[in-house]
Amino acid sequence: MARILVAGDQLVVRLVWWERAAARRSGVRVPLAAVRRVTVEPDWWRALRGTQQRGITVPGAVCLGVRGHQAGEDFVAVRPGRPVVCVELRASAPFRLLAVSSRSAAEADATARRLRGAAPEIDTSTPWRQPLPVPGESE
């Protein structure tokens, strides 16, 4: 199962061997300075947005890989029935959102707390994820 780790000044999404094969990538690394907001989504399906571009989706089992939408791309490693740690990223990062399932709500909360403490410039104005921008509107 995918995990979110902090390695130095990098946020790392580490994938197990079969997830690497399905997602066609070894993992994801982004600078902690690119982290904008960290939230926990108890409903796994709310973390998914856009359409599958690369990776695999097995309904009722897993959604893994890159999903595209009007604001860019998200990387997801989500399993149904599990809470999801959602990491919103700044525009300079390769993805707009990283969404990774956790084994339990307690593990998801602990991961989110650890990321909030490690990232230098977290936006704490709201505890919720922000909606995607509407095409034609400015941020």
UniProtKB/TrEMBL annotation:
Composition bias, Pro residues: 130-139
Protein name per the record: Uncharacterized protein
Region Disordered: start-end pairs: 105-139
